[in-house]
Design goal:
- By secondary structure, the chain is mainly α.
- It has one domain (25-192).
- It is built from two helices and no strands.
- Helix 1 (2-133) runs antiparallel to helix 2.
- The longest helix has 132 residues, at 2-133.
- It is rod-shaped, with a radius of gyration of 56 Å.
- The chain starts with a helix and ends with a helix.
Length: 193
């Protein structure tokens, strides 16, 4: 019986110890829950801060992308303008070459006309001196021949003046084109820098 009493008394005496152990475990659980709550709060704050930083970085990245798109558009425009300027320069150079060749042809023609006029004037001069030295008109000499030669010399003189004016006009036009070409080249060089 004594053993039964002891057995009955033993759990009653062990009960306060078990209760104390349960309270200690409960306190440990409470401390752990409080720690988990603090950790989750800090983790949420860290997550919100990181999300804010990511949003700001994305806004800056979008701004940078817009700037890059604008610069790409400007670069494309500059390339197109450069191509157009090169086309203009090429066209102007072709026109200048054509004008130079035309001018050379006119100069050659002018030289030929000048030589023809000079020889015609010499011939007319010789004829006039012969006619002046003759007191009579030789047979077969047409008095209109001299006037025809003079008229021909006058026509050639008009043609010569016209050709000279044309050459001067073309030279002025070539000078204007050279100046324009130099200006276009300068613009191209400034855009390439």
């Amino acid at each position: 019986m004594l053993t039964v009493l002891l057995l009955l008394a033993l759990p009653a005496s062990a009960l306060p110890a078990a209760r104390a152990a349960g309270r200690a475990q409960q306190e440990e659980v409470d401390v752990l829950i409080y720690g988990v709550l603090q950790f989750s709060q800090a983790l949420r704050e860290n997550l919100e801060g990181t999300a804010g930083k990511i949003r700001r970085a994305l806004r800056r990245l979008e701004g940078s992308n817009q700037s890059l798109r604008a610069l790409a558009g400007e670069a494309l425009g500059a390339r197109q303008a450069g191509r157009q300027l090169k086309a203009v320069v090429s066209r102007l150079q072709s026109e200048e070459t054509a004008m130079r060749l035309t001018s050379l042809g006119i100069h050659r023609a002018l030289r030929g006309v000048l030589e023809g006029q000079r020889s015609l004037q010499e011939h007319v001069g010789r004829l006039e001196s012969r006619v002046g030295s003759l007191r009579w008109r030789p047979a077969g000499q047409d008095p209109d021949c001299l006037s025809a030669l003079r008229a021909r010399a006058e026509r050639q003189g008009v043609t010569l003046r016209y050709l000279r004016a044309t050459v001067r006009r073309q030279q002025r036009q070539m000078e204007r084109q050279r100046a324009h070409l130099a200006q276009v080249k300068q613009q191209m060089e400034s855009q390439q820098m």
